[in-house]
């Protein structure tokens, strides 16, 4: 069941999905013009409108962020800058090539500074992580890091190098990250603004 509402003076479609098995109600921003509400079969359109009213600030902020980060089909991000994909290049192949070119010198630079050396560096497209360090001290980096500005890539490199010494996210780990990236909290916040 669909109905329309207005958020930030823009018309937005609300897709209300009702399922017998659902115990909880879920509100999701799908796109800049679509909200999805999943609820049980007794949840009415009036209930949905009340939920939207109660969550209006969250929805307004979310829609502003979605619009800011909205990309046309022929656009892509590279090092934090929006580009037109005029030649319809294979972006995964492009990002992988650029990751292999740009990330190893950053790893080498911070390896020397931090006195922490990985056993290998690999690149792949991941859905859940930007980087990882395994028990063999092999570093893996997500090729999609190439979307972000260099300072954010540097933060991920420092973060993963720190895992060579500290395998968890303990206070010692974050102290080590902060030693080599004093503004890491700001960079983490900036990272999230791109997502």
Layout: helices, strands, pairs:
Blueprint: E1 2-7, E2 10-18, E3 26-31, E4 34-39, H1 45-54, H2 56-69, E5 75-78, E6 81-84, H3 91-114, E7 120-124, E8 131-133, E9 138-142, H4 150-165, H5 171-180, H6 184-194
Helix/strand structural class: alpha/beta
Unreliable stretches (pLDDT < 50, length at least 5) are none
Side by side, the strands of the main sheet go 1-2-4-3
Mean pLDDT: 88
Integer-rounded radius of gyration: 21 Å
What's the assembly state of these chains? single chain
CATH class of the largest domain: Alpha Beta
Q: What gap, in angstroms, lies between the N and C termini?
A: 29 Å
By CATH, the topology of the largest domain is Zincin-like
Continuous helix count = 6
Number of strands: 9
Overall, the morphology is: elongated
How many domains is the backbone divided into?
2
Name of the CATH homologous superfamily of the largest domain? Metalloproteases ("zincins"), catalytic domain
Major beta sheet summary: 4 strands, mixed
- Estimated share of beta-strand residues: 15-25%
What is the helical fraction, as a range of percent?
Answer: 40-55%
SSE topology string: EEEEHHEEHEEEHHH
CATH architecture of the largest domain: 2-Layer Sandwich
Task: Walk me through what this model shows.
The protein is an alpha/beta fold. It folds into 2 domains: 2-69, no CATH class; 75-194, Zincin-like (2-Layer Sandwich). 44% of the residues lie in helices and 25% in strands. It is built from 6 helices and 9 strands; from the N terminus they run ββββααββαβββααα. The chain has helices spanning 45-54, 56-69, 91-114, 150-165, 171-180, 184-194; strands at 2-7, 10-18, 26-31, 34-39, 75-78, 81-84, 120-124, 131-133, 138-142. The strands form 3 sheets. It has a 4-stranded mixed β-sheet, with helices on one face. It has a 3-stranded mixed β-sheet with strand order 7-9-8, covered by helices on one side. The chain has a two-stranded antiparallel sheet with strand order 5-6. Strand 5 and strand 6 (81-84) form a beta hairpin. Helix 4 (150-165) crosses helix 5. The longest helix has 24 residues, at 91-114. It is elongated, with a radius of gyration of 21 Å. The model has no long low-confidence stretch (mean pLDDT 88).
């Amino acid at each position: 069941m669909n109905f329309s509402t207005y958020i930030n003076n823009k018309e937005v479609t609300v897709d209300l999905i009702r399922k017998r098995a659902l115990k909880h109600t879920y509100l999701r921003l799908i796109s800049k013009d679509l909200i999805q509400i999943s609820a049980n079969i007794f949840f009415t359109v009036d209930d949905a409108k009340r939920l939207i009213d109660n969550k209006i600030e969250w929805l307004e902020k979310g829609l502003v962020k979605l619009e800011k980060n909205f990309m046309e089909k022929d656009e892509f991000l590279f090092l934090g800058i929006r580009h037109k994909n005029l030649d319809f290049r294979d972006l995964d192949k492009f990002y992988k090539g650029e990751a292999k070119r740009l990330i190893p010198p950053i790893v080498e630079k911070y390896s020397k500074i931090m006195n922490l050396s990985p056993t290998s560096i690999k690149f792949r497209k991941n859905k859940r992580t930007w980087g990882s360090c395994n028990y063999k001290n092999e570093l893996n980096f997500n090729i999609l890091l190439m979307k972000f500005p260099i300072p954010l890539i540097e933060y991920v490199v420092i973060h993963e190098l720190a895992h060579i010494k500290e395998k968890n996210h303990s206070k010692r780990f974050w102290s080590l990250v902060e030693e080599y990236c004093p503004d890491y909290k700001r960079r983490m916040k900036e990272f999230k603004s791109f997502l």
